[in-house]
Amino acid sequence: MNLQSILSILVFSPLLGIIVLALLPKTQEKAVKAIGILATLPALILSLAVYAHFLAGKNLSDFSISVPWIKFRGINAQEPFFTVSYELAVSGFQLVLVVLTAIVSTLAAIGAAKFIKKEWKGYYMLFLLLLTGMLGVFTAENLILFFIFFEITLIPTFFLIGKWGYFEKEKAAYSFLLYNGLGSAVLLIVIMILFAKTGTSNIEILRQMMADPSGPLKDGFKLGLFIALLIAFGVKLPIFPLHTWMLRVHVQAPPSVVMIHSGILLKIGAYGLIRFGMGIFPKQFESLATLIAILGVINLLYGAFLAFIQTDFKMVLAYSSISHMGIVLIGLAAMNEAGIQGAIFQVVSHGLISALLFFLVGVIYERTETSFIDKLGGLAKGMPLAAGFLLAAAMASLGLPGMSGFVSEFMAFLGLFKVEPWIAAVGTIGIIMTAAYLLRAVLGMTYGKARREFDGGLDLKGAELVPVFVLMLLIVLIGVYPSVLSSPLQATLETILLGLGG
Amino acid sequence: MENAWLIPLFPLLSFLLLLLIGKRMKEASAYVGILMTLASLVFSILVLFERFQEPSYLVKFNWLTIGDMHLTAGFEVNQLNALMLFIVSLVSFLVHTYSKGYMHGDERFHIFYAYLGLFTFAMLGLVISPNILQTYIFWELVGVGSFLLIGFYYYKEEAKAAAKKAFIMTRIGDVGLLIGMILLFWQTKSFEYSEIFKAVEAGSVSNTMITLTAILIFIGAIGKSGQFPLHTWLPDAMEGPTPVSALIHAATMVAAGVYLVAALFPVFSASKTALLTVAVIGGFTAIFAASIGIVQTDIKRVLAYSTVSQLGYMMLALGSAGYVAGVFHLMTHAFFKALLFLAAGSVIHAVHTQNIEEMGGLWKKLKWTAPLFLIGTLAISGVPGLSGFFSKDEILAAAWEGGHPVLFILALIAAFMTAFYMFRLFFMVFTGENRGNQKEVHESPSVMTLPMLVLGILAIVGGYVNTPWFGSFLGDWLVDGNTALGHAHIEGPAWIMFAATIVSLAGILLAYLIYGKRSIAPDWLSGKGGILHTILYNKFYIDEFYQITIVAITKGISYFLRFIDVFIVEGLVKAVTGMVQGLGNIGSKLQSGQVQTYGAVAFLGLAVLVVIYALTGGYLR
Amino acid sequence: MSQVPASAFLALALILFCIGLYGALTKRNTVIVLISIELMLNAVNINLVTFSKYGLYPSINGQVFALFAMAVAAAEAAVGLAILMALYRNKKTVHIDEMNEMKN
Predict the structure, then answer these.
(1) Which domains does chain C have, with CATH numbers?
(2) Tag placement on chain C: N or C end, fewer CB within 10 Å?
(3) How far is C22 from chain B (nearest CA, A)?
(4) Tell me: the pLDDT tens digits for B451-474?
(5) Residue A378 to residue B137, Cβ atoms within 8 A
(6) Who among B151, B168, B561 is closest to A432 (CB)?
(7) What dihedral angle (degrees, nearest 10) is formed by the CA atoms of A125, A127, A130, A134?
(8) Neighbouring subunits of B (3+ Cβ pairs under 8 A)
């Protein structure tokens, strides 16, 4: 097989599943579920194969593919052709995210078989479309292609939330679509301006063009574009005060969708900020670094304090996501190796941890039909495994060493302390608060007197154990041996830092 | 020593094994734990003896690469580490053995052993860390081990609260350590102890920075070692099973703070201010906790406050530049305090209550436990001849020589109080009439008494490794000519020893008069100084103070932010959507449904366009 | 033979168109509206024929288009009347201002 076509196969393999599903009758529940899960596997296997290829010391650029796709002339004949190419590639950073996406998606598909109670066929078809969108977002080497995939992720998510969610699902779906639609509108404007002014939409060429001081854009204009990007991806991340949509989504969407949403979709914001914000506009990023650091600390503390008083465990987790995304900003604002690496680690680590947490919440909700902390309590008696894993996941989330959360938090703060010790010192309050709100919530649910009698056999069992074990294993693996994640990142880091230093 | 890294791995293996298959093994799980810690103990002893003859040993490898910085992990065997390895693995082994009897019949027996394994792994890892980052990693892990074990009886609300409190309060300290560590890193470009010491010695770190980082790191030690003002979690931690209290909250983890200060001693000794801070906090905690311990009625809480007080003692020693004294007391304290806790556990096992007012007259019924408890009590009180006497004497000498007369007097008073409350405990539990209603009181099985016996012997002879009479072997070995660690032995004036002896005997005598012979009414304190007793009994209302300040402020901020979230952020969003909706409403009025209106409007628009086109000639400029 | 000037044709077309427009926009009876639309179409046809004769590049194209437009107009009238019949059967009215079902 041609190495160059692997990425395309990787990205579009879920579509195969959609076709097969379309041919299946709705009533064959088991077959639908099986196909839905199986269709995520090619992407998983291929992404792991690419990772193995990297581990074998080969070059990741072997996979790059570039084919001219759309070509058109400008308004008058003198202008050169505008070309949009179909370009896919992976760098270390992208590879990490692709692997993360593939893993979490497979696990979420397994989870969906459990959590989704109706119309599996439609669910899995949308889900697989979403998967294609996400994989495309992380592999696109071209802004326009990126934008197309970005939009592809929005629409299935809208329907997944709106149709299979809980009581206020429509409202949640609409606010999701509104905010993200606005964000992508801003993004589209930025992309179009860049394309019109430079005649290219290839990210690498743009990066070089922007680094050139005699390039086509003035500095002030670049700053404006960067701020627009910050807003566009700030909605996605989300950055305070653009976060309220995400609370609703986390509470109302079905658990298997939240696993994807919190685990991967939010990460697109961070990915965009790093790849485009930092990659294309390094100087502008630098001039706003202090502001971003402050925004990061605000996110961190705001989320943490609000999580402290929530009564619904899903809300605790939603605010905790806001808080943890603050750490991404903190790391990026440090503008040094430690900080950026910390931010990327946080992206991956939070993806795994929040997927695990939401899976467990889904399981608990399914058994008890509530996720309110004061209605639960003493779960450790009825479902010891679930309670144990919930506690372990909370520990990972609050940055316990030996788990992935610590490595990222540590590196982000290590980076920021070098440049902004005071802001960082304020941020460390967040570390304490994280422990406080997570323990309050988790102990409230699992420890103490059992609020009601649980029959036996409520605990995690069978296929439910697969996602839990896999995620936990990865979390611990990254925590104990972070090189597994940091080695693919080195090349990306060098490129970014070159832009900052040059 | 090359295989010292195996020592922490045995308990880790025990943890993993028991988690996976412990449920099926039931109480046989104990053997896994005991065997694994025995292996650790054997290796630790070998390492300790090897270290007597060979120089320190250090291995490291790359753990994480950040750009051109390489963070390493590895292990180091130096004098302090070897000693700590021995203490930790010994106490852990004994507690593992003891627990087999104590926890008998618990339905989560294997989980208990698994947690014990996790904790032992973390603690052993902590003491062989060659760099401060790795120390921090294991530092947090021991915190989790402690958290899990305090909350072992998860269905008890008190245990849940205590576990949460322990974790969060130590976390506050840990953040101090984290900041201090990171600041130190950017000053010295390394987490390695050796590199840090080199940089500090070379004077490449400014004095203010050293003071700042040292104090921040000390905050970590305050949290872990239960020093004032972060001490309140330690007495509450007694909600955990008693063997846990012996292992974690007496002998090992709480001593980690002392170990940390000792391990970073060259940094601390480079700053007078930092040392003074350590000494003052230590001295104050020593007397503060001792005064609370006098009036408590829960046998474990008395011991807990005693632990806080003794840890303050060790801090005082380190702060007075008495490196050897601090580490020495750490060792002897580990022995006699573990002994006391295990003996207390044995008492609780026999009478099923923790309230000393419901005990009494147990001397005859507990043939083994009682004398062993007495040994521990004598040792902690500083009666000449037992281990506590020598280490306490060393600390007092260090405080005197360190030029802190006030702290010296505080330490003396604390020693008096210690002797008093410990013998109050002893007399109330073992002498007089039985005030409880226990029908049958049985001595514990030998699996519980044997570990106590071992500790009892060590509590007696442990002090003889470093005495003014038979030579300061331990001090010489620990310091080994390293000037940064201070003198191997501090030669205080001879009267200090007599003063210490008199003070402790006076404490014992007073306790005897009140609780043994009962020639002074036991309620004279609560009767005469009613307010004082109430204040002491309520632990100076520190918990309540935190409740109305820190907790309330945190909640206040949270509710304020929720107000912002709900009204301002959401309000803005609502305002924007409302505006759009209003515009839409106006626009929708145009859609009357009358085709003719549409036609008219379209025609008008066309006409306007044509007029504009005619006037401008097709170009809008 | 003196030629009739182009402006006369155009003026006729303009007048026809304006009458048609007025009718289409103001009359309540749907049949009248349809007739008015036919008027407007015929005005356009006159324009097409005029320009095919007097235009910048005279050719047969304009007349062909006029024929084409007539054919389309016939078809449109048939469909329009059919819809009208259906509506009348349902609503018992031919008044256009009562046919605002598309609203809301």
Answers:
(1) 28-96 (1.10.287.3510)
(2) N
(3) 9
(4) 888 888 888 888 887 776 666 777
(5) no
(6) B168
(7) -130
(8) A, C
